[in-house]
Amino acid sequence: MNVEIIANGIDHPEGVAWDPVRERLICGTESGEVLAFDPQTWERQVLADTGGFVLGIALDARGVIYVCDMARKAVLACDPDDGGVSVVSTGAPERPILVPNFPAFHPDGILYVSDSGSSWDAGDGLLFGIRGDNTTFVASEAPSAFPNGLAVDGSGSFLYVVETADPGVCRLPVQEDGTLGPPEDVVRMPGTAPDGLAFAADGSLIISCYRPDRVYRLSEDGLSILADDPQGRFLAAPTNVCYFGPQLERLAVANIGAWFISEVLDVTPGLEVHRPAR
Length: 278
Fold this sequence. Notes:
- Helices cover 0% and strands 50% of the residues.
- It is mainly beta and 278 residues long.
- The strands form seven sheets. It has a four-stranded antiparallel β-sheet, with no helix packed on it. A four-stranded antiparallel β-sheet has the order 2-3-4-5, with no helix packed on it.
- It starts with a strand and ends in a 14-residue tail after the last strand.
Protein backbone atom coordinates (compact mmCIF):
# COMPACT_ATOMS: atom_id res chain seq x y z
CA MET A 1 0.00 0.00 0.00
CA ASN A 2 1.51 3.32 -1.09
CA VAL A 3 -0.79 5.33 1.19
CA GLU A 4 -0.47 6.09 4.89
CA ILE A 5 -2.49 8.06 7.44
CA ILE A 6 -0.68 11.22 8.57
CA ALA A 7 -3.27 13.06 10.71
CA ASN A 8 -6.13 11.43 12.59
CA GLY A 9 -9.13 12.41 14.70
CA ILE A 10 -10.45 15.01 12.23
CA ASP A 11 -14.21 15.40 11.85
CA HIS A 12 -14.77 14.27 8.26
CA PRO A 13 -12.29 16.49 6.39
CA GLU A 14 -13.27 17.52 2.87
CA GLY A 15 -10.90 20.37 1.99
CA VAL A 16 -7.13 20.43 2.32
CA ALA A 17 -4.61 23.08 1.23
CA TRP A 18 -0.96 24.00 1.77
CA ASP A 19 0.13 27.28 3.36
CA PRO A 20 3.68 27.83 2.04
CA VAL A 21 4.18 31.05 4.02
CA ARG A 22 3.66 29.42 7.41
CA GLU A 23 4.58 25.93 6.16
CA ARG A 24 1.51 24.15 7.43
CA LEU A 25 -1.31 22.04 6.08
CA ILE A 26 -4.82 23.49 6.35
CA CYS A 27 -8.03 21.49 6.43
CA GLY A 28 -11.70 22.00 7.25
CA THR A 29 -14.22 19.83 9.08
CA GLU A 30 -17.87 18.89 9.01
CA SER A 31 -18.31 20.80 12.27
CA GLY A 32 -16.98 24.04 10.78
CA GLU A 33 -13.46 24.10 12.21
CA VAL A 34 -10.50 25.27 10.15
CA LEU A 35 -7.39 23.43 11.35
CA ALA A 36 -3.65 23.81 10.77
CA PHE A 37 -1.13 20.96 11.02
CA ASP A 38 2.63 21.00 11.38
CA PRO A 39 3.76 18.57 8.63
CA GLN A 40 6.61 17.29 10.77
CA THR A 41 4.95 16.67 14.14
CA TRP A 42 1.27 16.75 13.03
CA GLU A 43 0.49 18.92 16.00
CA ARG A 44 -2.80 20.67 15.30
CA GLN A 45 -4.13 24.16 15.89
CA VAL A 46 -7.70 25.40 15.56
CA LEU A 47 -7.50 28.56 13.46
CA ALA A 48 -11.18 29.42 13.07
CA ASP A 49 -14.72 28.12 13.43
CA THR A 50 -17.27 28.98 10.77
CA GLY A 51 -20.18 27.40 12.61
CA GLY A 52 -21.02 25.51 9.41
CA PHE A 53 -19.59 22.69 7.27
CA VAL A 54 -16.30 23.43 5.49
CA LEU A 55 -15.76 21.98 2.01
CA GLY A 56 -13.00 23.26 -0.34
CA ILE A 57 -10.22 25.65 0.70
CA ALA A 58 -7.89 28.12 -1.05
CA LEU A 59 -5.32 30.61 0.27
CA ASP A 60 -4.24 34.00 -1.06
CA ALA A 61 -0.74 35.50 -0.92
CA ARG A 62 -1.21 36.73 2.68
CA GLY A 63 -2.39 33.34 3.87
CA VAL A 64 -6.04 34.35 4.27
CA ILE A 65 -8.05 31.14 4.09
CA TYR A 66 -11.06 31.15 1.77
CA VAL A 67 -13.51 28.35 2.48
CA CYS A 68 -16.68 27.07 0.87
CA ASP A 69 -19.19 26.54 3.66
CA MET A 70 -22.00 24.25 2.62
CA ALA A 71 -24.18 24.85 5.68
CA ARG A 72 -23.92 28.65 5.47
CA LYS A 73 -24.24 28.65 1.65
CA ALA A 74 -21.40 31.13 1.43
CA VAL A 75 -17.75 31.65 0.64
CA LEU A 76 -16.00 32.82 3.80
CA ALA A 77 -12.60 34.35 4.58
CA CYS A 78 -10.78 33.21 7.72
CA ASP A 79 -8.04 35.41 9.15
CA PRO A 80 -5.02 33.16 9.83
CA ASP A 81 -3.87 35.30 12.77
CA ASP A 82 -6.94 36.16 14.83
CA GLY A 83 -9.43 33.55 13.58
CA GLY A 84 -11.94 36.13 12.40
CA VAL A 85 -14.49 34.87 9.87
CA SER A 86 -16.16 37.15 7.34
CA VAL A 87 -18.54 36.57 4.45
CA VAL A 88 -16.98 37.01 1.01
CA SER A 89 -19.93 36.02 -1.16
CA THR A 90 -23.35 34.42 -1.07
CA GLY A 91 -23.62 34.41 -4.86
CA ALA A 92 -24.40 36.74 -7.73
CA PRO A 93 -27.36 39.16 -7.68
CA GLU A 94 -29.30 36.93 -10.06
CA ARG A 95 -28.30 33.63 -8.47
CA PRO A 96 -27.55 32.81 -4.82
CA ILE A 97 -25.05 30.08 -4.03
CA LEU A 98 -26.71 26.73 -3.37
CA VAL A 99 -23.80 24.41 -2.53
CA PRO A 100 -20.43 26.19 -2.63
CA ASN A 101 -18.02 23.33 -3.11
CA PHE A 102 -14.51 24.37 -4.12
CA PRO A 103 -12.54 27.63 -4.63
CA ALA A 104 -9.52 28.16 -6.87
CA PHE A 105 -7.61 31.36 -7.57
CA HIS A 106 -6.68 32.68 -10.99
CA PRO A 107 -3.39 34.64 -11.12
CA ASP A 108 -5.37 37.80 -11.96
CA GLY A 109 -7.05 37.63 -8.54
CA ILE A 110 -10.44 36.18 -9.43
CA LEU A 111 -11.56 33.40 -7.11
CA TYR A 112 -13.51 30.80 -9.07
CA VAL A 113 -16.02 28.78 -7.05
CA SER A 114 -17.98 25.70 -8.04
CA ASP A 115 -21.64 25.56 -7.00
CA SER A 116 -22.77 21.94 -7.15
CA GLY A 117 -26.46 22.85 -7.45
CA SER A 118 -29.64 21.82 -5.67
CA SER A 119 -29.05 18.06 -5.73
CA TRP A 120 -26.75 15.36 -7.07
CA ASP A 121 -28.62 14.81 -10.33
CA ALA A 122 -30.47 18.13 -10.77
CA GLY A 123 -28.03 19.39 -13.41
CA ASP A 124 -28.26 22.98 -12.17
CA GLY A 125 -24.71 23.53 -10.97
CA LEU A 126 -22.53 26.38 -12.24
CA LEU A 127 -19.32 28.33 -11.70
CA PHE A 128 -19.00 31.71 -9.99
CA GLY A 129 -16.22 34.25 -10.20
CA ILE A 130 -15.43 36.52 -7.26
CA ARG A 131 -13.36 39.65 -7.91
CA GLY A 132 -11.01 41.31 -5.43
CA ASP A 133 -13.78 43.64 -4.23
CA ASN A 134 -16.00 40.56 -3.64
CA THR A 135 -18.23 41.40 -6.60
CA THR A 136 -19.61 38.04 -7.71
CA PHE A 137 -20.71 37.01 -11.19
CA VAL A 138 -21.77 33.82 -12.94
CA ALA A 139 -18.67 32.75 -14.84
CA SER A 140 -20.26 29.78 -16.63
CA GLU A 141 -23.38 27.65 -16.51
CA ALA A 142 -21.91 25.00 -18.80
CA PRO A 143 -20.44 22.44 -16.36
CA SER A 144 -23.74 21.73 -14.61
CA ALA A 145 -23.54 18.05 -13.59
CA PHE A 146 -22.54 18.61 -9.94
CA PRO A 147 -19.39 20.71 -10.58
CA ASN A 148 -16.92 19.98 -7.83
CA GLY A 149 -13.11 20.24 -7.61
CA LEU A 150 -11.30 22.98 -9.56
CA ALA A 151 -7.75 23.66 -10.68
CA VAL A 152 -6.27 26.52 -12.72
CA ASP A 153 -3.41 25.50 -14.99
CA GLY A 154 0.04 27.02 -14.57
CA SER A 155 -0.42 29.65 -17.28
CA GLY A 156 -3.85 30.71 -16.06
CA SER A 157 -5.32 29.90 -19.47
CA PHE A 158 -7.81 27.24 -18.37
CA LEU A 159 -9.99 26.35 -15.42
CA TYR A 160 -10.25 22.58 -14.99
CA VAL A 161 -13.52 21.36 -13.47
CA VAL A 162 -14.67 18.03 -12.05
CA GLU A 163 -18.22 17.05 -12.92
CA THR A 164 -19.11 14.39 -10.41
CA ALA A 165 -22.57 13.39 -11.65
CA ASP A 166 -21.45 13.05 -15.30
CA PRO A 167 -18.17 11.65 -14.18
CA GLY A 168 -15.14 13.28 -15.64
CA VAL A 169 -13.11 16.46 -16.00
CA CYS A 170 -13.55 19.30 -18.46
CA ARG A 171 -11.69 22.56 -18.94
CA LEU A 172 -12.88 26.05 -19.85
CA PRO A 173 -10.77 28.88 -21.30
CA VAL A 174 -10.45 31.94 -19.08
CA GLN A 175 -11.49 35.02 -21.06
CA GLU A 176 -10.26 38.60 -20.64
CA ASP A 177 -13.30 39.67 -18.62
CA GLY A 178 -13.00 36.70 -16.26
CA THR A 179 -15.92 34.76 -17.70
CA LEU A 180 -15.28 31.28 -19.00
CA GLY A 181 -15.55 30.03 -22.57
CA PRO A 182 -17.11 26.79 -23.82
CA PRO A 183 -15.99 23.62 -22.01
CA GLU A 184 -14.09 20.80 -23.63
CA ASP A 185 -13.72 17.30 -22.24
CA VAL A 186 -10.38 16.36 -20.70
CA VAL A 187 -11.34 12.86 -19.56
CA ARG A 188 -14.53 10.90 -18.89
CA MET A 189 -14.51 8.41 -16.01
CA PRO A 190 -17.55 6.10 -16.12
CA GLY A 191 -18.14 4.06 -12.99
CA THR A 192 -16.53 6.63 -10.69
CA ALA A 193 -17.46 9.76 -8.71
CA PRO A 194 -14.47 12.10 -9.15
CA ASP A 195 -14.11 14.91 -6.64
CA GLY A 196 -10.75 16.72 -6.30
CA LEU A 197 -7.98 17.98 -8.59
CA ALA A 198 -4.32 18.98 -8.35
CA PHE A 199 -1.65 19.59 -10.97
CA ALA A 200 1.74 17.91 -10.83
CA ALA A 201 4.78 19.88 -11.95
CA ASP A 202 5.09 17.72 -15.07
CA GLY A 203 1.61 18.79 -16.20
CA SER A 204 -0.18 15.61 -15.22
CA LEU A 205 -3.45 15.91 -13.36
CA ILE A 206 -4.22 14.21 -10.05
CA ILE A 207 -7.90 13.24 -9.65
CA SER A 208 -9.28 11.96 -6.35
CA CYS A 209 -12.51 9.96 -6.33
CA TYR A 210 -15.27 9.92 -3.76
CA ARG A 211 -16.15 6.54 -5.29
CA PRO A 212 -14.30 4.22 -5.50
CA ASP A 213 -11.63 4.88 -2.83
CA ARG A 214 -9.03 5.76 -5.42
CA VAL A 215 -6.69 8.47 -6.72
CA TYR A 216 -5.93 8.68 -10.44
CA ARG A 217 -3.18 10.33 -12.46
CA LEU A 218 -3.96 11.67 -15.93
CA SER A 219 -0.88 12.13 -18.13
CA GLU A 220 -0.03 12.07 -21.82
CA ASP A 221 -0.08 8.29 -21.50
CA GLY A 222 -3.69 8.32 -20.34
CA LEU A 223 -5.48 7.63 -17.08
CA SER A 224 -3.74 5.42 -14.52
CA ILE A 225 -4.34 4.49 -10.89
CA LEU A 226 -2.01 6.30 -8.50
CA ALA A 227 -3.46 4.83 -5.29
CA ASP A 228 -6.27 2.38 -4.61
CA ASP A 229 -7.77 1.08 -1.36
CA PRO A 230 -10.64 -1.39 -1.90
CA GLN A 231 -10.96 -1.88 1.88
CA GLY A 232 -11.22 1.84 2.63
CA ARG A 233 -8.65 1.77 5.43
CA PHE A 234 -6.29 4.47 4.16
CA LEU A 235 -8.50 6.12 1.54
CA ALA A 236 -12.13 6.55 2.64
CA ALA A 237 -14.22 8.60 0.21
CA PRO A 238 -11.23 10.79 -0.73
CA THR A 239 -12.31 14.27 -1.69
CA ASN A 240 -9.78 17.07 -2.14
CA VAL A 241 -6.05 16.63 -2.70
CA CYS A 242 -3.11 19.02 -2.47
CA TYR A 243 0.64 18.94 -2.76
CA PHE A 244 2.56 20.09 0.30
CA GLY A 245 6.05 20.36 1.74
CA PRO A 246 8.97 22.72 0.95
CA GLN A 247 9.32 21.38 -2.59
CA LEU A 248 5.68 20.31 -2.97
CA GLU A 249 7.03 16.79 -2.91
CA ARG A 250 4.19 15.27 -0.86
CA LEU A 251 0.54 14.64 -1.72
CA ALA A 252 -2.19 14.95 0.96
CA VAL A 253 -5.67 13.49 0.60
CA ALA A 254 -8.71 14.53 2.67
CA ASN A 255 -11.14 11.69 3.42
CA ILE A 256 -14.69 12.82 4.13
CA GLY A 257 -15.76 9.22 4.75
CA ALA A 258 -13.47 8.94 7.78
CA TRP A 259 -11.59 10.99 10.38
CA PHE A 260 -8.17 11.34 8.81
CA ILE A 261 -5.90 12.88 6.21
CA SER A 262 -3.72 10.45 4.32
CA GLU A 263 -0.65 10.78 2.11
CA VAL A 264 0.08 9.11 -1.21
CA LEU A 265 3.76 8.17 -1.15
CA ASP A 266 6.46 8.40 -3.84
CA VAL A 267 4.71 10.91 -6.06
CA THR A 268 5.85 13.31 -8.77
CA PRO A 269 6.24 16.81 -7.21
CA GLY A 270 3.37 19.23 -7.53
CA LEU A 271 2.75 22.49 -9.34
CA GLU A 272 2.38 25.52 -7.09
CA VAL A 273 -1.19 26.79 -7.07
CA HIS A 274 -1.94 30.46 -7.76
CA ARG A 275 -2.08 32.64 -4.63
CA PRO A 276 -2.60 36.23 -5.77
CA ALA A 277 -2.52 39.27 -3.54
CA ARG A 278 -6.00 40.57 -2.79
